[in-house]
Amino acid sequence: MQKRKGFSSWTPFFFLSSLLFLAFLISSTSIPSTSATSSVIDPDPNPNKAYEDDDEKEYNDFCYAQSVIRDMPEKIDKESCKKTREIDFHDDDMHVLFMIFIVILYGAVVRSIIRYFHSDIPYTVIVMASGMGMGLISKYFCYELYTYTAIARTHPKIILFTFLPILLFESSFSISGHVFMKAAGQVLLLAAPGMLFCTFLTAFVCFTFFTEYKWTFLESLFFGCIISATDPVAVVSILKELGVSETLGVLIDGESLLNDGVAILLYEVLKDLILAIELGHVHTTWELVGHITQEFFQIAVGGPVFGWVMAKIAIFCLCRIFNDAVVEITLTLVATYLTYYIGETVFHVSGVMAVVILGITMSSEKTCISPETEHEVHEFWGMLGHLANTVLFFITGVIIMERGTRNLDWNDLYYLILLYCSLNVVRFLMLLIMSPILTRIGYGMPWQNMIVMMWGGLRGAVGICLSLEVYEHIDFCQKKLGPKILLQTAGIVLLTLCVNGTTTKKLLEVLKLTEISPGRMEEMKNALRTINVAHKKALIMLRHDRFLSDANWTYVAEHTKIDDPYRNKIVADKSMPTQSSIVSIGPEHVLNECPACHTYVPNQPTNEELKLMTEEARLRVIKAMKISFWAHFERGVLTEEAVQILAGTAETISDRVLYMIHARDLKKYWTIRGIFPWLRECVLNHGGGRELEQGEVIPPKPKRLWKQRIWWLATRSWFENLMTFLVILNMIPAIVQLIVENNYPICDPGYIIYFYVLTAINQGFSFIYVLEFLIKIIGRGCSDYWNSKWNILDFIVLAFTLFDAVIVATVGCADSSVNSAPGALNFFKIFRIVRIFRGLKLLKNLIPAILRGINGRINTQLFLGYDVALGYICACDDVLKFLPHMIDNKRVLHKIRSSVEKERLEAVREMGILQKNHPGIAIAVKTRHASRSVLNHMKSTLNELRVDGLLDEKENDLLTVVLEERMKRLWNCPSYIAPPAPEVLLANLNWLYGHEELRDHIFKNATFLQFEVNDVIASVGDAPQGIYVIVSGMIRIDYEPSMEAVEDRAAYGVIPVMEIFKDFEFDRKTTDYCSSGMVIGESSCLTGRQRAASVICETEGVSAYHIPASVMQEALETFTDHFNSLEERLWRACGMRRAANYLTTLSSYHNMPKEKLEMLLERSCVPIGPDFDTIKIPPYVQEVVVIEGMVKNEETGEIYIAPAVIPKICTKITMPINPKTMNRVLVFLQEDQMPDEYDDDRLAQCLIAAKKQRRPSIPDEKLTEQEMPAESVSTSKQKQRRMSVAVNFGVRQKGRKSSEGTMMRRSSIYTAGSTGGSVQNTRVLRKNVRRKSTVDESLEDK
């Protein structure tokens, strides 16, 4: 067995090694001819052989070749191209391409070896060392391999342009946006001032000690900026392999990603300055300062700005794509390369910084990528980054050996060792000097992190490429600046990777930075405990399988058991004794021996330990909440904005010690704020919007006949539209006259004709306005006319117009002083301007559109707030289910649970108030959630059909496109949907569907009630008072446990009569808030027991339908069909709610979406009657849940007390005698199973009958007046507005006409309580409608 195990583990290694050997064997059969890649001028067909013993000749020929390229490009064709054949270039190109794939294959072999032997040597170090070996062989031992390493002689910019964008984006895209933003101050401090400090100190060391090179200080500074920049490629790859804390990783990663921008800035500035001095183009001081400033803003500032703009463009495009992995991956890839290329070549900014900002911005807004394709996008970039890392570090190794070691002497080695030590010291001094600032901003800087950052300043491919660019620059050949820079850079890269890189993990272990945190240890322990429980259950269940019963279960148990991966790891806090560590003090049963009396007492943590445990638990809870947020987003329940808000809040709160997420931290998102509420109030109060919002009030018809005709005309809508049209026509001559009078005197002879014509036209319109005024005054009455602000504006303009007409008719142009006096001219122009103010009346028709726009923005904000609150509540529910598995210590568990429950209740309360004030918002959110849940279920069904082979790929793709198109349409779902009529909630009771007689009976006897705030609907100890169906408002349910209730539940399975099912031990005080759709009193009508929880109105305007207990009792005695009784329907409704809450606490249903579980429970029944005293469980049953009382396993005699799930190995149960309550079980089918309709089994017939009770997926039919409850007939006839002007926004959405206004009159009716303890002195507010007279009714009266 051990032999086979070893062979199977080595199989990938042997396979990859065989492929690698075969590839080299094939490559050795085709020996290249001449090489045209080493030098463009060299006539020697074998350059390596010629240069083997003469490095000086090689260097001189290289400089000569560069001078030829610069001065005599026409000579290249004559001396080089004529000596080579065209096929040589093609062979070399194929060799390069072939070598790339060989390197990738070799990387796979190395990765397999590292994972098998658990090597501590980083992957990149091995790959670079392999490249060095390849370069050594190709240069000195096997000249045939020289063409295969030609990629290492590619221009350095091509290498950077090819590989660097991939590695930069892959690294920045995986950085946590929150952590990076908080540590941004530290990162920028290290990347900018820190980089300058290291550059100058390194330059000082080189200028002082590198005397043989004869570098000037400017040239030393030039080398310092190249060698001081840490390489993101090297650092990121090392960090990912070794694993460090997220904050330390972001600090090192962020610094190495950003300081390249500063390095490139210094590189470009110093290169231009050196060349200017060499060529004699000396700049003045101010020209030099201006040039440096321009370069700084262009590279350091322009790069991030350009990257942010490209990120926003990419996000905009990605947001328009839905579940198309190919397109989304393509967009990210194209955006990365375009950002780097355009930034470097077009705008001449830092492409490195642009790509980094691109990745960080897209990471912070990663919801732009579809949830179902996000994993594929990250996997693609992870794979691409691995391939680029492999090839780039292999190329780096080849470059070091082939080109970096030329002209190497003992002085160079001495300088290299000195430089290596100096770089580490300089970096440590930089961190030490900046530590006072670094420790006070961001996440701080412990001394351990400072040492790791000093030692982790690795150099890599970026420095190599920059030094290669200097090496190949023609102006740096004569002074040998390029060769020495390349040699020293290559040596530093080699030393930092081989020394620092290989010892970084050991350094982390010495500094105790890789130790497993107590939280992770406890998580692992809890996970193993859960897995072991599942392991035991699986063994027990499968042993009873007929096919597997004869398996070797000892072997199965032996080879399926897993050990703790952390058993040999070190706990982070080693100073804490083992018996008092955070891991061991979790269980309360741990005992310690008292040193005084030598008795064992329960272990109790100290305050400091308790604080540490609470903090660890808090972080785990917040992490679980974040996972819940993203899970709901992936299912389409949360919008992109909502999940970003929730996840961002969780990340921010996680940085605050001992602080949980509170509802007040999110309250600002569902609170109306900003400029739009202010604009709305301005329009309503000062723009006549309130009059339009309330609708036109038709004045009463006068008694006199002649006034009735004028009243009829004044109240016509077409009359108002006609006057608006005339105002538009009047604006034309009024504006023309105003413009002309600005250019000509009023009584100018050339203008006099136009003056009288325009004046006559305006006076004609004035006459029409006078008629309008008289018609409205006479027809509508003075009080009605003056109540409108628009009529007041019309009257003011009319008064000025008439005064203008009187002056013109009186004075005209007879008085010559009109033209000579400027005051008279201005006096005339004032009246012309006032005429134009009549055009403001046109805004009256725009006010509704303006209000709709403002209300739409407010509704969108409230929609987002409701979505945020709902996502937070769902996350709290998920966390509360798993808290016992996450926290062992009872004190910490109680503290965390109390905090989460308190904040959940506060969020539920806030959401209930929001739903009460803005019901249309809640309806819109629920509608979108329901739509997406239905589409998710349809898509999962489609996937099951494809997996089962019942659907071909083509048809599956077509249907998938259709479903995803429907999902995409939900992005544009309305933010406001008018709530349904109250009677619809009563009609939607699932125990009424499919039974017309029962439905008519309930509707006939239902009463519509309204309550005030703090009114008590039901109290603890009340006898059954019937059923309440909450229509609007919010109620509070308070449960106070009693000793009797707890004991009866534990002994007899008596579930307390209440509507809260969270803690199924029912031994804790519980409070919850509920709103519309909640049903109160079902279980009390079924069991006849007194209530265990009170129901209190939390808000004003709570309305409900009440079905009295006498009506329900009559219905229970009347509708007693064996398989379709009202009792069975009610038990099924109660059982589904109880089972839905209880099953989610079981491990087998943890990850099942709530919607899918509810769909499974729809296929259920509650068998009632003597025929079901014994139930045989058939194989098509999914689960049997005990929802009340207890049942007995007939085979083993085991008793299952509610709530409980019958084990699958149990095939027959009986109902024992229960003195406290009745025994009830809920039986539901497997997802794709259904009993035969002709099956004689009573349980099968019960399930088939329950199927007919299920509601089909069609919209609810509108109820007729005869079908409506008696109390709601008069209410339904009212054309009520669904939203109050003062509170509810967005009532008139997109052309939706408002109904006639109604006035409500409340009357208080106090009902006497019955002997059973009914609600005493409950104020019932009934609606009485006083209709306003309408035009149609008036005409009919006439």
Automatic annotation (TrEMBL):
Key words of the record: Cell membrane, Ion transport, Membrane, Signal, Sodium, Sodium transport, Transmembrane, Transmembrane helix, Transport
Taxonomic lineage: Eukaryota, Metazoa, Ecdysozoa, Arthropoda, Hexapoda
Biased composition (Polar residues): 1308-1323
SUPFAM superfamilies noted in UniProt: cAMP-binding domain-like, Voltage-gated potassium channels
Region (Disordered) residue spans: 33-54, 1254-1342
Leader peptide range in chain numbering: 1-36
Places the protein is found: Cell membrane
Pfam families: cNMP_binding (PF00027), Ion_trans (PF00520), Na_H_Exchanger (PF00999)
Main location: membrane
Keyword Iron-sulfur attached: no
InterPro entries registered for this protein in UniProt: Cation/H_exchanger_CPA1, Cation/H_exchanger_TM, cNMP-bd_dom, cNMP-bd_dom_sf, Ion_trans_dom, RmlC-like_jellyroll, Volt_channel_dom_sf
Domain (Cyclic nucleotide-binding): residue spans on this chain: 1011-1100
Record membrane topology: Multi-pass membrane protein
UniProt keyword annotation of Ion transport present: yes
Protein name in the entry: Cyclic nucleotide-binding domain-containing protein
Organism: Orchesella dallaii
TM helices/strands, residue ranges: 94-114, 121-138, 158-180, 187-210, 296-322, 334-360, 380-401, 413-438, 450-471, 718-739, 751-771, 792-812
